[in-house]
Amino acid sequence: xxxxxxxxxxxxxxxxxxxxxxxxxxxxxxxxxxxxxxxxxxxxxxxxxxxxxxxxxxxxxxxxxxxxxxxxxxxxxxxxxxxxxxxxxxxxxxxxxxxxxxxxxxxxxxxxxxxxxxxxxxxxxxxxxxxxxxxxxxxxxxxxxxxxxxxxxxxxxxxxxxxxxxxxxxxxxxxxxxxxxxxxxxxxxxxxxxxxxxxxxxxxxxxxxxxxxxxxx
Length: 217
Hints:
Layout: H1 3-8, E1 11-15, H2 22-35, E2 39-42, E3 56-61, H3 70-82, E4 87-91, H4 94-98, H5 102-115, E5 121-125, H6 133-145, E6 150-152, H7 165-175, E7 180-184, H8 190-199, E8 203-206, H9 209-214
Parallel strand pairs: 1-2, 1-8, 2-3, 3-4, 4-5, 5-6, 6-7, 7-8
Helix pairs in contact: 3-5, 5-6, 6-7
């Protein structure tokens, strides 16, 4: 396989703008199939997809703030699975983690995990740009203890910023290959993608996938 094809297979081709229509999502799916990405990631209101072209289907939960009750996130995740989602990207309650309630973070992740059991893939968005290094480590450990499959840097919606090489490296070191690491938010160029992969990312959240793949050396 070419490098472009290899990187494409790490991409969740993403469209999460609230104004996106079903026609926009259909174009996203067609583009993802053309580019050979791993999946498409869409808002829960767009599920079920009429034709996923054989791609994995990801959606979000508690998005974008994470400021929802755990039982609400669990219900949202369960509905998305019923609607055909293969993967759930949930946002943690960031205030809860930053207040030092790591046990609460673990409990809410476990609630979503129980609502969306394997083989559904669960990714945990920690909004790393808002966290200290110690908080990033704590969030990753809570995710692993609760049975998540991936830790993910960012929603891409927070003004504090998206993925950074430092955060991805720290997350990858913490989970030690036992969980995947998804870099998302601001991953726009081929150079960005290569830097995140070198730092330990095993999945990429990208909205401008065509430009990124065409920009690979």
